[in-house]
Specification:
Blueprint (H helix, E strand, L loop, with lengths): L5 H33 L3 H22 L6 H19 L4 H21 L5 H25 L7 H22 L16
Length: 188
Amino acid sequence: MSSPSPSSTSAWALLLGTVGLVYASLPVSRDVLIALVQRDLVGWVITASYFGATVVIVYHVVFDVRLTDRVAFAALVVLGSVVGALVLGMSVPEERLHFLQYGLIALLARRALAFGSGPARQYGLAVLLAGLFGLGDELIQAVLPDRVYDSVDVLINVLAAVLTLAGYEALHNQLGWRPTPPSDEPPS
């Protein structure tokens, strides 16, 4: 059996470090939220978080010349609208951050799984891992004072993973669902 490549090891370390950061913040996140509410900063922090994520996506789309396909752009607009509607419909502010947290975890899981499996398997396992990490998040909250287990949050985490990976697929077409543009190279 071959040893994992440095890229694979780095990808897994980044994924597990991100999950560890999410888990480590659970005991203090309620206090941070209360402090933000008292200072009327919750909306600003959530808006800034989504703005940052949007800037990263726009930067990626604009500066990756392979992403000129209008279908990919349309898919991102539709997915962004769905996520926006879901997020705006959430009454608990911290639930809005689940989309960013578990979307990121799904992307990191897909990247970590990229070393040794095909795209369809990467996506499926990435959603599964994000869901399991989300379940772990809720199980930790079940034993913390002033926190509760909520199965709806687990579903939100899985939905965030699915929508994020759908957006990733719209950009990268790894599953080959969209036709590829013709190559400028002559056939050999």
